Structures are given as structure tokens and as C-alpha cells.
Amino acid sequence: LTSQLVQALGPDLTMAPSELLQLLASGDTTTHTLARRAPELAGEAIRAWPSGERRAIGMRPYPTRFYPQRSLAAHILGFVNDEPNAYYGVEEHYDDYLKQLGSPFHKTDPNVQVLYNQLPAEWQEYLPSDTGQDLVLTIDRRTQFMVEHVLAKALGQYQAEGGSIIVMDPRTGAILAMASLPSYDPNRFGTTSTDTVLVNPAISKPYEPGSVFKVITMAAGIDAGLITPDTVISDTVAFEYFGQPIQNWDRQGMGPITIRQVLIGSRNVPTAKVAVGLGESMFYQYVRRFGFGQLTEVDLANESAGTVKVPGDPLWSPIDLATNSFGQALAATPLQVAVATSVIANGGVLVRPHILEAMVYRGQVIRPETTVVRRVIRPETAQAVRDMMADVVAQGSSNARVSGYAIGGKSGTAQVAIEGGYSATETVHSFVGFAPADDPQVLVLVKLDKPKANPWAESTAAPTFAEVMRQMMVILNVGPEQVAGEP
Questions:
Q1: What is the pTM for the complete model shown?
Q2: Is 163 helix (H, G, I), strand (E, B) or coil?
Q3: E strands within 41-198?
Q4: Inter-residue contact 309 to 320 (CB < 8 Å)
């Protein structure tokens, strides 16, 4: 019997064969676990022994989550351990629904077949499950696979430590893809070198967004009636505010320029002047209305609210008004930046992002409605900023262009905050944009952590964005059109 047990359980046996033999000979009546997560074949082999030889060896089957796509969308899904407890992502957020086990839901039942046939054709291959309680996600598998492939290529090409890409519908808040690297295989969650890999950086790890935040400042200025895209403002070499000098990325001044040129050239000094013109109360009112410093309430576990200091907070100082205007001294998650940019893309409303396409309960399909949280800016403001972002790509960010499509977007190169200031060598690169610019149907955000191959996002995040957007136009079947400036 000992040799049969050893052969049946193989590497899953929790003790040495000699220990097992000694245990069987001792007459010990204590219950001992011989193996955990043993394969089903081992159980079948033991069940096949004559009952007299089997003695008091018992087996207990238990359900185990299996993720057939391995690491694909791991940060979105999360995982379920052996207990079973759900952690991270969809698994943890929808745990109460998914863990409710009803009576078996047999697909061979004629009544079940009627319900089954009512499901959309593309779902019938997978649904319903044996319990009839299922979730359908907004994630498009083709898009998710493509995005993960593009992100992995970008990390290698630009020598970045990690990164995230989000693809979403700015009109509905539906997330079509969300990828972060490094990642893991949910089937082997216990083998990761560090728990930080399990956390979804796209919703849980805030960063200083840098110049992509300038579109928020300009939207606030236009919506408040302070400026227009054609307002002329002075771009000086430096702007001293409360004893601190604000400078441009090139340490130069361009003189009198329009607000449109400020965004195209990504100028810090005039952007800070717009924020100062708005004043503390109005500027931070718009920052909050765009959703910064608060949860997006996406249906994924462990979301972070980011950090926005406001007047009255112990650590806030007047200089923060100027630096916040171009995305410094505040922190946001990639999803917060994507959702805020969606406000500009969709005509001015904040839409709650979501990962759930539908709940299926015993053949009944329940689809959540799009949730409009609030109107943030007027439609005319959104249109004006959208047009300026199209000019940013057409006249400035050449690496973000996609032939045959008008793209709106903005890059950001942010220094990494360290104790006592900012790193002189480490940066975070990002690009966020949408297409087609005149009727945005998809929004893409790219974030690359500490790339070493090039110091500017225009040369790293922008071309990565362009590659994702080019493929998205094919996936969404959006045909090209004549674009100004192209043959």
C-alpha cells in the first residue's frame, strides 16, 4: 500500500516514503494530510483499490480556479487561493456574487437550454457555468493581448522598469484593455518574488503625471472664461511665484504666444500663470471636478485615490498652485488620468469607468447602465481643448501620429519624486490621447516607468501610444480619412 500511495501521489506527497511507512505501522489514529492539490488521477487510483486495502485513506475534492489564458489580464482578474479567498481585481470586487454556489445548473436540462440559447452568440461558448452565475467583462481579448504585447516590446526597447497601458471608450467608461508589467500568472500567484507584483499599478500606484496635466489646467481656464485658445500670454524665461522660480523644460522663453501654442510647446511658465490667474479656490475646484484626489469607483479591488494637497492642508504651500498646474507635486493613478482626459473627449462629463459588461444569473442577462457622475466642463470647452490636443499631435508630437487619422493627445515627462526633492536622472513618461479627434471613440493612455533609452516621453510613450492606436483603429473598424498635412 505504501508503494502504491507513493506512486499515486508522487511529488504531491507531503512526507518521505519512510515516514509514511512508519506512520502506517504506528497505529496512530490522528488525521494527517498526505497531499494537497493532488491531481484527480491520484484520487481515481486510490478509489480503485479494494476497500479492505484502502483502510482509512480519505479524499476530498474541492473547486480550484483555473486561468486558461495564464498571465493575460492577470491584474484585472486577481486570483482565488486554496482557502478559497479572493484577492485583487474582479475576483475580490465581485467575490460575494461569484462565491454564492447554488444548485447545479445542468446545460443538458431542456429548460436551461432555452435560457442558454437566449445568450449572445459570442458568449455561448463559455456560458453558463455549472452554477449559472457568471460575469462578462468589457475587456476585449484581442485588444488585451495586443496591448500586453506592445507594452512588453516598449519596456525592452526603451529599457523601462515597468509600465501600464489603458484602453477605454471615453463615451461609456468601458475599459477595453488594461495591462501592466511586470505581471504574474494567477495560477501560480504564490511563486511571485514580491507581493507588489500582484498589485495593479494602473489603479493602485499613483505617480506625478507631469505635462499631460496641462490639458486640465487649460480646460479649467477656458471653462472659467479666463482664457481662450487664442489668448496671448507671455512665455518668459522664468516666473517667480512666492519666492520660487518656475521654468520651462528648455530653460528658455518664447515671448508672447497663444494658449494653443503653450499646449503645443508644453510650456510650464504660461501654464502656471493660467493657474495663478484662476486662483486657488477655482483651480482646485476644477481639479476635484475632474476626479483627482478621489476614487474613480471602478469595479476593481484596491483602488487608490491619489494625492492632491489643497489650501488648508498641513503640507500645502502656495507654490503648489503653480507646480500642480503642470502635473508636479500631486499624484494620480493612470486610470484617473485616463478618466479625466475622457471628460475632454466625450464632451465634458465625468463617466464612471467599469470593467463589467454584464452579470448573467441563470440565463438572465443584467447589463449595468453608463454612470455619468457629473458635468465637469461645458461642451464648448471640451471641443476647444479637443481641438488644441489635435494641434498638439499635428504640429508637435509627431511620434504619436497615425497615418489617416486625426489624433488628439498630450505627452508628459515627469521627474520621479524622492526624499527631499526630485531625481536628477529618473523620470516617468506618459502619453494620453484619443481618436478620431473630431469624434473620439477610443482613448489610450501609456505610462512607462524610468525608461533609460531616451529622456523624453515624446520619443518613448508617444510612439508606443501610436502603435496601440493604429491597431485599435483596425480592431474597431474605424476607416481612415484625409488628414490635413498628409498626402
A1: 0.88
A2: strand
A3: 79-80, 86-87, 133-137, 162-168, 175-181
A4: yes
